[in-house]
Amino acid sequence: MRFSNMFIPTLRDVPADAESVSHILMLRAGYVRQLASGLYIYLPLGWRVMNRINKIIREEMDAIGAQEVSMPVLHPAEIWQQTGRWDAIGDEMFRLKDRGGRDMCLGMTHEEIMTWLASKEIRSYRDLPQIWYQIQTKLRDEARPKSGILRTREFIMKDSYSFDVSEEALETNYQLHADAYHRIYERCGLRFFMVESDPGMMGGAVSHEFMAPSPAGEDEVAICKGCGYSANVELALSAPSKNNPVDWQTEEVHTPEKRTVQEVSNFLKLPPSYFLKSILLITDSGPVLALVRGDQELHEKKLARVIGSHRPAQKVEVKGILGVEAGFIGPMGQKIRTIADESLRDGVYVSGANKPHYHMKGIRAGRDFQAEWHDIHVAKEGDFCVKCGQSLHVERVIEIGNIFKLGTKYSMPLKAVFLDESGQERPIVMGSYGIGPARIAAAAIEQNNDKDGMIWPDSISPFDVEILPLNIKDPKTMQAADTIYKDLTDKGFEVLMDDRDERAGVKFKDADLLGIPIQIIIGEKNLKEGLIEIKKRRTKEAVRVKVEEAVETYIAGRNK
Amino acid sequence: MRFSNMFIPTLRDVPADAESVSHILMLRAGYVRQLASGLYIYLPLGWRVMNRINKIIREEMDAIGAQEVSMPVLHPAEIWQQTGRWDAIGDEMFRLKDRGGRDMCLGMTHEEIMTWLASKEIRSYRDLPQIWYQIQTKLRDEARPKSGILRTREFIMKDSYSFDVSEEALETNYQLHADAYHRIYERCGLRFFMVESDPGMMGGAVSHEFMAPSPAGEDEVAICKGCGYSANVELALSAPSKNNPVDWQTEEVHTPEKRTVQEVSNFLKLPPSYFLKSILLITDSGPVLALVRGDQELHEKKLARVIGSHRPAQKVEVKGILGVEAGFIGPMGQKIRTIADESLRDGVYVSGANKPHYHMKGIRAGRDFQAEWHDIHVAKEGDFCVKCGQSLHVERVIEIGNIFKLGTKYSMPLKAVFLDESGQERPIVMGSYGIGPARIAAAAIEQNNDKDGMIWPDSISPFDVEILPLNIKDPKTMQAADTIYKDLTDKGFEVLMDDRDERAGVKFKDADLLGIPIQIIIGEKNLKEGLIEIKKRRTKEAVRVKVEEAVETYIAGRNK
């Protein structure tokens, strides 16, 4: 492909509203444009990357026996009503009415429709297992679309669904997917790992996420280098650092106007880990008191798994329910439901004294308060692994895929059943599995860039190689360029040739910005010696080789 | 691919609600399933066909220098408001609000978004020409979805858009598309032709449709075998058969209770072509009288191009406006706007006499009534070509593509401009071009089927060849099947092998239903002589060849 025939609108300046590196570079290099909040147009270069990623995904899905289908974006409400998600999902779902006034929605995911299809077509255990997948458009009305193509309201997703006779059979398909996902990310050149995750709105018992480490990520994972334990911090278990070594008797301490852990910690000259933090929350079934250690953060999602949806109490509610103003509350003598973090089981603490401007030293679980015990704190760097006791490492990551064991959550309400070998009707056991190719592209850029632009992994670069004839008016330059272009193209490589009548500096700058991994530079000076230059985008190392050896040198370099 | 690993849910019975042959066969052969009215799921076989068609489309689009991009399904209303189509398009457009209450719509087509992109990115004549295309999902809330995948509410479309400096340059891109479309349909094995068409909601001055002859079509085209003139009957010009040869004096005739042309024609024993039919219509700017010859039908769309949108007058309106009851009206002495069909210019006619239960013989244009003259009749079989005078043939067709010269209809309101060589700002001149791959698939089936099932053209068949080992329990059969399968697959062919443990009859029936063009049949009896059978699906001709010659015989047959 010749640059002059291609629509590559590069930008000199950093776009004002772009946040992440991938967002900035995809705009600057002319890969994408934003149509509206969370809605992106893929320009020719961006779309080439997506197609290369999708090809890898297809190959790996086909290799595990998955079969590609294609389902509509537009869904009738009835099927979503049958599983309850029509009501359970809020503003994230785009809803509309058709001309007949019927409720419809835009597919956020396809568990409902896939299960509906299985309910119509699967009859017998002989029809199972099945894996059906599609690479198709999803729509989710994100509250805060951001970071370019990382979090959009419309996106392409490879979603697959497995249908099995039993949990054991599901385990096989689940593992096949986990392995296929590993191969996909490896082939796409990403650094990544698989972690335990929260099934969230998908439901089901077990799920894992695939995460690409990057500061641009919206998630955090906790990883134990000792035993390999890794999980999204949304559910990562951890043992905080050791408890304080003191053994105080209970004692009221005057702490005038000192309300927060930080204020009291400074005032009493004790580290935050010596404190017990009490937080009052309001649920549909009444108030709940949550207790965490002073150096820990309460994890809303972990707590939500215990008490359901909740909100923080307002000041006036704290006073009304606990009889003391916020800042001085403690669990002692409180009659409401109390959830305490595991880290508070042992040791003695300073807590609010349930008396204005006083705190109480020497508070001890079991003796001074009763509670239900759960891990409700946010796992953080330096916490200890609950499995092996070694230090946890917390890393920011981009979610690039997820896999769910759904069990019969969808097959039961949609009556997707089969007759087993004994002729008995049983619900199909399902899994669902998602990969976002746009996130793979963005993660690849986040993990591979420098001050000059992107650096694509070979496998998903929009082109394999870029040829830069520096002076297109020099016939010898163009003859060499055309020869190498033809030779590479004939060998099946995708080649971009910058045939624009531009200064060498502009071509170098754009080539680095575009990030094609190898540049073949054809300059008049080298050419006089019969040489061209082959340059690696990543290291900027260049070798000079004979014109007629350019292609074989390029190929030899690729295979390294 | 092995049949046993593939999801091909064939049906024995003809589905009750399927209308067209393609609809019935795609359901029966397990190619598609209907999710809801006008919403279809492509199963693995159907999706393979779509991918093969899309590959051909991509190759031909790339060959004319078109560049593939991808745009969202979801559009902000503002851009559609700027071109006026937000208001001009009715219930066909799916509309919704996002969580912020902003008006959005689902893309029926992408003129607005493509032009918006051009307005942001095109600066200079040096940036032109451009052709951008996508193969992407469109949504239209059809009033009456029907015929399976022929008229659906959600469908995939290849839509391309050309951007040029002038009408002359547009002509080049328009012709490039017309040629590419010819190649696409030829490669897909369709019988088709290109006809003049009505631009409809796209606007613009010139447009053509590509039509595949089929009784399942919803359109009709008029074709002149003399000069090659061809057009959608929506705008086809035609000269009806010769006028009546009589030359009556005006004379009132009593026609008691005879109102319709048919009734009066029977009563007076004169053919319908001797009559003048007057039809009263109501428009926003008042009543209009339309006149056509008694043997012709008024063409609503042709008339709409003259008088705009309109509706038939009710009986009470006819009486009120014309002073006489419906059935006896004539154009004589009427003071309202009158549009007459060209066929009435000459000759004398029988018309309503504007007097209850009377008609008037001897009515003549110019003398007895004045009118604006237009072609407002439906062209029909046996009419004469207005260009060369030969007979017109009218054929039912499936619309499989269309191309539009848009001019500056979209670039003006969206301010998509460029600076020309003299530095002057000018609007970009545009074209738009659509192909529906699903319609190609359906048309291919409509044109190629027999009582046993589909017969795919080689190029778009889900598989190139199907191998039928008749007894999978016979090791020699399976050995031959596996050898041929491997050999064909290694040579790059897509092969389906029916490895199911089914009776030969079931395999034959399903193979014919699925319509893969070549069947390689491996039976024990032939195998004893070292032979297999190669059978053409279309003709059912079979040849017996040696096992080791199967592949070369297949390849040789393909190239014929």
Automatic annotation (TrEMBL), chains A, B:
Sequence intervals crossing the membrane: none
- Catalyses which reaction(s): tRNA(Pro) + L-proline + ATP = L-prolyl-tRNA(Pro) + AMP + diphosphate
User: Is-annotated flag, keyword Ribonucleoprotein?
Assistant: no
| The EC number(s) this enzyme carries | 6.1.1.15
- The keyword Nucleotide-binding is annotated on this UniProt entry: yes
GO BP term (any one): prolyl-tRNA aminoacylation
Subcellular location per the Swiss-Prot or TrEMBL entry: Cytoplasm
List the Pfam families hit by this protein, alphabetically.
HGTP_anticodon, tRNA-synt_2b, tRNA_edit
EC main group:
ligase
The entry's cellular-component GO terms read: cytosol
Q: Which domain of life is it from?
A: Bacteria
Question: Residues in domain Aminoacyl-transfer RNA synthetases class-II family profile?
Answer: 33-457
- One GO molecular-function annotation for this sequence? ATP binding
PANTHER family per UniProt: MITOCHONDRIAL RIBOSOME PROTEIN L39/PROLYL-TRNA LIGASE FAMILY MEMBER (PTHR42753), PROLINE--TRNA LIGASE (PTHR42753:SF2)
Function description: Catalyzes the attachment of proline to tRNA(Pro) in a two-step reaction: proline is first activated by ATP to form Pro-AMP and then transferred to the acceptor end of tRNA(Pro). As ProRS can inadvertently accommodate and process non-cognate amino acids such as alanine and cysteine, to avoid such errors it has two additional distinct editing activities against alanine. One activity is designated as 'pretransfer' editing and involves the tRNA(Pro)-independent hydrolysis of activated Ala-AMP.
Protein name, per record: Proline--tRNA ligase
Q: What is the lineage of its organism?
A: Bacteria, Pseudomonadati, Nitrospirota, Nitrospiria, Nitrospirales
